[in-house]
Write a structure and sequence with these properties.
The complex is a heterotrimer of chains A (about 300), B (about 280) and C (about 325). Chain B is α/β, with parallel strands linked by helices and about 280 residues long. Chain B has helices at about 65-75, 105-110, 125-135, 145-155, 160-165, 175-190, 205-220, 235-240, 265-270, 275-280, and strands at about 30-40, 40-50, 55-60, 85-90, 95, 110-115, 195-200, 225-230, 240-250, 255-260. Chain C is globular, with a radius of gyration of 26 Å. The chains are: A mainly alpha (about 300), B alpha/beta (about 280), C mainly alpha (about 325).
Chain lengths: ~300, ~280, ~325
């Protein structure tokens, strides 16, 4: 039945039909609105295109194979060099963050969906709220938690990124666990398989593709984070560091630091870095969507 | 044999699983004064029925009468639903399965179940599906040649070994609906239960597959106690030895067990007026 | 040979204990992980207030909120009045940039979501959704960098036109006054609009998709045009969902840091009334000064800012979630 809370809309429309706004007027309005929506859609796509094309054009001016094998020069105004330190640092920090956040996030989602209860429901709600928490605030928290005791380090950066990824993984996993049919859990129970075994060997494998998609999107998000790393990993502008207890640079930090110097040579490096970062994120994004799409196809 | 509880539990004959449960108490279920609830809603009240070994017992009745819930009470699956509860007793092989020291996980290994829709595990192959209950069960035996024997024996029992022996490593979902259901039966048989519960096992299948499954039940009934819920009265007449009729007075009301009799008797000469109405097609 | 036939017949007393134990251990582990999620939120609040506490005690709890002058170089170990760490201008900057962002993003997001769910042919829907989602995948630092070099130059002619027209209006004119140097509240708001757009659009798509199809068809069957159907059957039902999405988008805009830091100008000394002027937000000042905070109570005061930012975004997010949740429950 067609009844929004206020006035009866069909009546309004039927009345307006009798008024001066005749049949053709209604259709003109309909077409006009459709065109308007299409224009807004196109404008949105244009902005996306503008960002991507601009970054690509600027980045390609400098991006080359040596960009991945050299470090930035000691003097930022000097031309040349690359972001090897940042790229390796990003891989280390984001990799560690993934190792921290995936088991905890998946386990928390299992508690929320498979066991339930009031505590689990509260966790679900808090995860929703955590998604909206500013990453800089999380950076400040990890600064207190870690940096004030052990100093700026890659570990601190990866803890911050893990906290940012955690609610994303909880939500994606919970969503996927909800889609696993109850029938599978019941089939396992009827075979005398314990609850824990059912979750580990039946439910989670069924949700694996969806969870992978969620994790990849969280990794993509972490790859681009900058603000919390300023407060935790700090960065190291000149050489490759692989010891995670030392300050480590990331691709995002290198972009930020080089972009705001005001030197053209540094900005050229930053554009190349920005293009690299976008490409990494894009690959993760497309791969995640492909997995998600295949999932949707096999389901239907 | 099978102690569902510790050694002080009621005496049950010992030894290996009997091939003729009819001679023992092993496959016997005794329900008395059972009421099942979902939260505050009562699915059925005060059901008492004895299910004898070596027979096929059919539960029939209109939708909402609680026959599926009754079935799910016989292996404790009912209790996996949030806020579900029961009062009364269900004795399987003489042991009250709702006693606090009885693990429902073990009960389900004693009482197998086949569901309305075939539900093979989608991430596992045909062979892995068959052995899932053993590999992930309480006594884990992950590998070994004996698992292969279990696969062959169970699939043979389910009458599908010849059809699938060349593609045991294909996913279970690649089979047809009827084959999937037989795979689910094989999967249940692999853990060697004494009792097999079937919740409308043919309602999602075509007529030919239905007949195959019914033939299977008749073939296996000497070795297992069967309880089958069905909507289809012809099916109850074809496969069951004993039929229990349940009914419900109206939506939201709890279901009741009206009468239990030998199938022939119940369909030809029902004693209760409600049964007469149902089996003659006046209601339901 | 191990007899498989005996599997379910062996006495299970000792096994039962072990299975129960493993099961309970597993459950406890899962809930421990859930506990970590809760703990993160609680600890964040506790740690921030703990770090900010010396400054709060030194200057007084509310003195931060009554001043709009942030001048760390004026701070001395002893002096308590006036508080050199006023944060009102940051709250103002956060509010103004986020409002500009939402005023632009909300209508665009409604239009985009309507186009994707109702107008676009079926084969276009998925690619279009992905394209909009892609806007969310572009990192903040890239938006900031792009903002400086691509967006700001493009803004100059438009903003100068606005200054010469709107800026002349008495009263309201102060809000649109020049001069315009590029970096500004307005530029930050625009970047925020782009960044928030995909998040809000995604929620709208979900909300619009929950309107029952038969209701839409009923409207079409009455001879309503598509636009009339959207206006009468879809939008009124989606009202609270739109509000919730707006609130969540606002929460996101409040917290955005790096891109804003790069295009807002980082002027911390007072509130700038014109949206074309320079300023700072709560998050940008933390990012900008954190590692160089050497004055007395400087770092502690930044933690006070972080704490208030946490409180504000927490309240906004809880409100938004509750509204969106109620919408979903109401439609289910």
């Amino acid at each position: 039945m067609l009844a929004p809370p206020r006035a009866d809309p069909t009546e309004q429309v039927l009345q307006s039909r009798g008024g001066d706004d005749g049949q053709s007027g209604r259709h003109v309005k309909d077409v006009a609105m459709t065109v308007l929506l299409a224009v807004v859609m196109l404008a949105t796509l244009a902005v996306l295109g503008w960002v991507l094309v601009y970054v690509a054009a600027q980045g390609l001016k400098y991006l080359g194979p040596t960009f991945f094998t050299q470090n930035p020069p000691g003097n930022p105004s000097q031309a040349g060099g690359g972001f090897e330190n940042g790229i390796i640092g990003s891989l280390i920090i984001v990799g560690m963050a993934t190792l921290f956040s995936v088991p905890i996030g998946v386990a928390a989602a299992v508690a929320i969906i498979e066991y339930g209860g009031r505590f689990a429901a509260a966790t679900g709600f808090v995860a929703d709220v955590l998604v909206g928490l500013p990453s800089i605030v999380i950076g400040a928290f990890v600064y207190v938690l870690w940096v004030t005791r052990f100093g700026f380090s890659g570990v601190a950066g990866s803890i911050a990124l893990a906290i940012i990824m955690l609610p994303l993984i909880v939500r994606a996993t919970a969503e996927m666990l909800r889609l696993v049919p109850v029938a599978l859990r019941e089939a396992a129970a009827s075979l005398g398989i314990s609850r824990a075994r059912t979750i580990v060997s039946v439910v989670l494998p069924s949700a694996r593709a969806g969870i992978t998609t969620g994790v990849m999107l969280a990794v993509a998000r972490a790859m681009g984070e900058t603000a919390p790393l300023l407060l935790t990993a700090l960065g190291n502008q000149l050489f490759v560091v692989t010891n995670p207890t030392k300050p480590i640079s990331t691709l995002s930090l290198e972009i930020f630091n080089n972009a705001i110097t005001g030197f053209q040579a540094a900005q050229a490096r930053a554009w190349a870095g920005a293009l690299t970062l976008i490409l990494i994120v894009l690959i993760l994004f497309v791969a995640a969507r492909l997995i998600g799409w295949r999932l949707a196809v096999t389901r239907s | 044999m099978s102690n569902l509880t510790d050694s002080t539990s009621p005496v049950v004959p010992g030894g290996q699983r009997s091939t003729t449960p009819g001679s023992t108490e092993a496959g016997r279920i005794e329900v008395s004064g059972l009421t099942a609830r979902y939260g505050k809603h009562e699915a059925f009240t005060d059901v008492s029925i004895a299910i004898e070994p070596g027979q096929v017992t059919a539960l029939i009745g209109p939708s909402g009468c609680g026959k599926s819930t009754l079935l799910r009470c016989l292996n404790g699956l009912h209790m996996t639903v949030p806020r579900a509860s029961v009062t009364g007793t269900v004795r399987v092989a003489g042991v009250d399965i709702y006693r606090s020291d009885v693990s429902l996980v073990h009960v389900s290994r004693y009482v197998g179940m086949v569901f309305q829709r075939p539900n093979p595990f989608p991430t596992m192959s045909i062979a892995q599906n068959v052995t899932a209950g053993l590999r992930f069960g309480p006594r884990r035996r992950r590998r070994g040649p004996w698992l292969e024997e279990v696969v062959e024996r169970s699939l043979r029992q389910a009458g599908m070994w010849e059809e699938v022996k060349d593609r045991l490593h294909k996913p279970g979902g690649s089979l047809s609906g009827g084959q999937q259901q037989r795979l689910c039966i094989a999967r249940s048989l692999a853990v060697e239960p004494h009792i097999l519960l079937m919740d409308e096992p043919c309602s999602a299948l075509d007529p030919v597959s239905t007949l195959v499954i019914e033939g299977l039940i008749t073939e296996l009934k000497n070795d297992y106690t069967f309880v089958i819920v069905t909507h289809n009265m012809q099916q109850a007449e074809r496969v069951s030895d004993v039929t229990a009729f349940m009914t419900v007075n109206g939506p939201g009301q709890p279901g009741q067990l009206v009468e239990v009799a030998s199938t022939k008797e119940l369909f030809s000469n029902p004693s209760q007026p409600a049964t007469v109405d149902y089996v003659t097609g006046k209601v339901g | 040979m191990a007899s498989p036939a005996a599997v379910s017949d062996l006495p299970t007393d000792h096994l039962r204990g072990r299975v129960g134990y493993a099961d309970r251990l597993f459950k406890a582990t899962m809930f421990a992980a859930a506990g970590i999620v809760l703990l993160v939120l609680l600890c964040t609040a506790a740690f921030l207030i703990d770090q900010g506490w010396p400054a709060l005690r030194h200057y007084g709890f509310f003195s931060f909120l009554t001043s709009s002058r942030w001048a760390p170089s004026d701070a001395t170990p002893k002096g308590t009045h006036p508080n050199p760490y006023g944060i009102l201008q940051f709250a103002y900057g956060t509010a103004v940039t986020s409002l500009i962002g939402m005023v632009i993003a909300l209508p665009v997001a409604v239009a985009v979501a309507l186009f994707i769910t109702e107008v676009a042919p079926a084969w276009m829907r998925r690619p279009l959704s992905y394209a909009v989602d892609l806007l969310a995948a572009i990192p903040s630092v890239v938006y900031g960098f792009w903002g400086i070099f691509a967006l700001l130059p493009a803004l100059h002619p438009i903003v100068n036109f606005l200054i010469s027209t709107l800026g002349r209006i008495p009263g309201v004119g102060a809000v649109f006054a020049g001069p315009f140097f590029g970096v500004s509240y307005f530029a930050a708001g625009l970047v925020l609009a782009i960044m928030v757009l995909p998040i809000v659009t995604a929620i709208f798509r979900e909300v619009f998709a929950t309107t029952p199809i038969d209701e839409k068809e009923a409207a079409r069957a009455l001879g309503l045009t598509r636009w009339e159907m959207l206006r009468t059957a879809l939008l009124p039902r989606s009202r609270s969902g739109i509000v919730g999405a707006g609130i969540l988008g606002l929460g996101r805009a409040f917290g955005e840091t790096i891109a804003v830091t790069m295009v807002i100008g980082n002027s911390v000394l007072a509130i700038t009334t014109s949206i074309f002027g320079q300023g700072a937000t709560m998050s940008s000042v933390i990012a900008n000064e954190f590692t160089e905070a050497v004055e007395p109570f400087h770092l502690q005061s930044l933690f006070v800012v972080a704490f208030w930012l946490l409180v504000i975004t927490f309240v906004v997010n809880v409100a938004g979630r509750l509204v969106v949740r109620r919408t979903r429950a109401g439609l289910a």
